[in-house]
Amino acid sequence: MGTIDGVGGTGPARAGWARPSQSGGQGGAGFAVPASAPSPSSAGAAPLPLGGVLETMLALQAVATPEERNRTALRRGQALLGELSRLQAALLRGGEGAEAARAALGSLAAPIEEPADPVLASLLRSIRLRAQVELERLRQ
C-alpha cells in the first residue's frame, strides 16, 4: 500500500502506521459527534463582537516603528539622490531624458513621515530642498 508523502510523490506505507478498520476495531473509537449535541444554528450562537477590532488592527499596522520610519526615510533619500544624479546627467547630455527625471523627482520630493533619527531627518530635509530647487529651476 502506498502513502502520499507530500507534493509530487507517493511512497511505501511506513511501519507502525495502521489504518483504522471500518468497524472501529483495534479497541479505539473514532471521533463521533454525540446525537444530543446541539447544532450551531439551534444553540443560538451569537455573532462575535468585531466592531472596531478590524479598524484597530489596521491602525496598529499603520503605525510605523522608529526603525521603519528611518528605513523609509533612508530609501527616500537615496532615491532622491539617484534622481538628482539622473537629472544632472540628462541636462549635461542636452536635456535628453530630463523630463522623465523631473517627473520622478517631483513625485519623490513629496513629504513623508519624519524619521526618528534627527540627523537623518536633517539630511532628508536638505535633499528634499535641493530637489525642490532643481524642480523650480526646470520650471523657469
Class from helix and strand fractions: mainly alpha
Q: What number is the mean pLDDT?
A: 75
Q: Profile the largest sheet.
A: 2 strands, antiparallel
Strand order in space, largest sheet: 1-2
User: What string, H for helix and E for strand, traces the elements in order?
Assistant: EEHHHH
Shape, principal axes of CA atoms: elongated
Strand residue percentage:
under 5%
Give me the Rg, rounded: 32 Å
Q: How many angstroms does the end-to-end distance come to?
A: 81 Å
- SS field, number of helical segments: 4
What is the share of helical residues? Answer: 40-55%
Low-confidence stretches: none
Number-wise, the strands total 2
Tell me the layout of helices and strands:
Layout: E1 2-4, E2 10-12, H1 53-62, H2 66-92, H3 98-108, H4 118-139
Antiparallel strand pairs: 1-2
Task: Walk me through the structure.
The chain has 140 residues and is mainly α. It has a domain at 64-139. It is 50% helix and 4% strand. The protein is built from 4 helices and 2 strands; from the N terminus they run E-E-H-H-H-H. The protein has helices spanning 53-62, 66-92, 98-108, 118-139, and strands at 2-4, 10-12. Strands 1-2 form a two-stranded antiparallel ribbon. Helix 2 runs antiparallel to helix 3 and helix 2 (66-92) runs parallel beside helix 4. The protein starts with a strand and ends with a helix. 9% of the residues are buried. The mean pLDDT is 75.
